[in-house]
Amino acid sequence: MTTSTNITAAVLVALVLLSACKRKEAAPAEPTPAPPAASEPAVPPALAAAPAAVAPFDLQSVPVSSAKLPPFPYVERPKDMEGYHNEEQQFDRIYVIAGKELRPVEGHYQQRWFPPRAAKMSLLEAYRNYDNAFRALGAVRVDTANPADPAFIEQNGGKEALLKRLRLPNLPRELPGDVPAYAQYLLRTPDTNVWLSFSVFDDGNNVSLMTVEEKAMQQSVAFVKADEMASALGKDGHIALYLNFDTDSDAIRADSKPVVEEIARLLRTDPQLKLKVEGHTDSSGDAAHNRELSRQRAASVVRAVTGLGIDGSRLQAIGVGADKPLADNASEEGRGRNRRVELVKA
Question: Is the pTM of this model over 0.70?
Fold first, then answer.
């Protein structure tokens, strides 16, 4: 009797489990979400995240200073200190932050940097000193964008490109609340604009002072004429030309267009002549980047010459980078000689 009862119970349990499985299998599937309506297409993330255009800074918003101004660079460094560095060019292109705009300016440039502790100053004291000195000249602080802001960095080509344009090795992670990592001032004079900046790097261990006095470049290198190019190619098989390009760019500046026209005239005069156009750089920076930049600049010269009606099959662009220097890269004069475009008889 006990055995029969146990078997019956087991059978009932099995039937219950089987019934439950069937009910689970028969449960309807969850409905599939409907695709978005054709009239409301999804916005691609890349388009949704596109940065808005930045309005150019209004220079007229800063009044012209009536103060009696000292000579360039307008403010002094702390006196009687060690650990001081200086870089100066009579003409260069520098980027400043004006409003929310990363703005290129050209002219006489000087950058000085020093550790505040070498001047027996706190970081706050150094900032307050230069903020007061700039304002005493009639300069106005004009930057409203934070160069460490990820949106500003993305809008201006990424961190590495932005720091290179601002002439800074890095920006600090955090500073005392009253000290900005970057502060840009504009001093308008009756004759020109002067850009003065105070910035901090190496986590507050160093400060940078930059002065850019806007002015036009004074042409110091005579243009090589087509007949001179032909003479050098016939004698040496190559000739070095010095064209001006935008900083870290393959864009040929307007003042070098006459050189391009002379290259085209050279090729028209000798229809059988074929040339290799070699781009060369100095040794500053990454070697691979320099080689690619030199190739792009050579290609830019080729495009400009063919744009004047010369058959492109007569020209070949080559990037050499810093591999064939003409002078020692230890001096600015040497680096300037090495930054060139060479025409080589093919």
Answer: no
